[in-house]
Amino acid sequence: MRTFVLGGDGFCGWPTALHLSAHGHDVTIVDSLVRRRIDEELGVQSLTPIRPLAERVEAWREATGLRIGVVTCDLAIEPDALVRLLTEGRPDAVVHLAEQRSAPLSMKSPHYKRFTVDNNVRATHSLLAALVQTGSDAHLVHLGSMGVYGYETVPLDLPEGYLTVSYPDDNGVERAREILYPTQPGSVYHLTKSLDQLMFQFYAANDGVRITDLHQGIVWGTQTDETALDHRLINRFDYDGDYGTVLNRFLVEAAVGHPLTVHGSGGQTRAFINIRDSVRCIRLAVESGDEVAGRVRVMNQVTETHCVSDLARIVAGASGGVVSNVANPRREADANTLGVRNDHLLGLGLEPTLLESDLLVESIEVAQKYADRVDPHRIPCTSYWNREREAMAGVPS
Ligand code: NAD
Ligand code: USQ
């Protein structure tokens, strides 16, 4: 299959591109490299020493003999280049990971709020419009987010994208209808994923675009079988207050002797998936595109749920860290329950890797190996969800 990986220089995109290439896909990475520029803007760097994209693909060719194409293109502001790419490349599948994905960054300032909406909404819409304009039948696989469902305080098993609701009509006759699960975004970033869903629904219905939307949980770990082949293939590992996600942050915090930063009580329950399972799921989704026709296929890409304080306890137990409850910079429920259905991906062959596995030890070892690259000043989260907290922290509004 000819497969484009949009956002293929990122944390999920790079190992996805390698995994697809290793499994016989003819891969082209399309990326604006905006993420590397944001690192510079913020003055942060990946824990791991990631190489420039050109060097990465050359190392992959040397290690495996396989070629990966690279195109630098900003989907949000270069729609004509995107049309040319689709016309010339004729992909069978397009994996779309090219969005600004940090919730804290999306709440950091009016500038980053606008950037997140402008970048993500325009990137997704340009892609959909270009697929239609070029008459492409490519299967679009988008990385969405579990967070679009919102977090309830009542026990509930989240379905995969759709909900059947029933209501009495004007004559009192009970009617049933399937609707997109109502979104309840908790950040401007999650808001853009909610908007993506509507665009997918429209283009699937109006133009017959074949779309799979993967509602992914929080990804942890860093290495995959492919990125471990050569040190130049190493994957990104964010730990800073904006881009570091909770479990990876705890692993780095433990490695440098920083207290594990549990926000509030730590009762927030979230869904998780290891990066190795994430890339396998994306391949399963891409390769089952023939199943997709008509409505958007939504699959929950998660393997387990944990509350934040339990995660901290597990990491502290495995690595000797100390847990600290810090003021929560976010506006979110202090505690919630979370049940998630993931029948679709299990049905396609996903074999979940659970947290208490050797991979946790592997991730701890990576964190320890590169601990001297950590800037402890970049660990605290300095993006706040509301003005009162900004004022409390002395951050200009
Ligand atoms: P990342 O920031 O590491 O990578 C995103 C990549 O997309 C970067 O290389 C960036 O340069 C590129 N990009 C962004 N905007 C672009 C544009 N307009 N044009 C071209 N390239 C652009 O993020 P990630 O962690 O790899 O996330 C990838 C996708 O997976 C995102 O859509 C994210 O919402 C989703 N996701 C990530 C996680 C997670 O825990 N990391 C969890 C669930 C969903
Ligand atoms: N948290 C802490 N301590 C920290 C960091 C975070 O307690 O040091 C808490 C947060 O308050 C939150 C939870 O951990 O309750 C998750 O935060 P996170 O930063 O790990 O995840 P989130 O902001 O939701 O975003 C990440 C990715 C995003 C993806 C999303 C999947 O950055 O791209 O879409 O996970 S999900 O959460 O399922 O929507």
UniProtKB/TrEMBL annotation:
Transmembrane ranges, per UniProt, are none
Could you tell me which Gene3D superfamilies the record lists for this protein?
A: NAD(P)-binding Rossmann-like Domain, UDP-galactose 4-epimerase, domain 1
Q: Cite the NAD-dependent epimerase/dehydratase domain residue spans from the record.
A: 4-292
State the family it belongs to: Belongs to the NAD(P)-dependent epimerase/dehydratase family.
**Leader sequence segment:** none
Q: What is this protein called?
A: NAD-dependent epimerase/dehydratase family protein
Q: Which organism is it from?
A: Tomitella fengzijianii
Q: Which InterPro entries match?
A: Epimerase_deHydtase, NAD(P)-bd_dom_sf
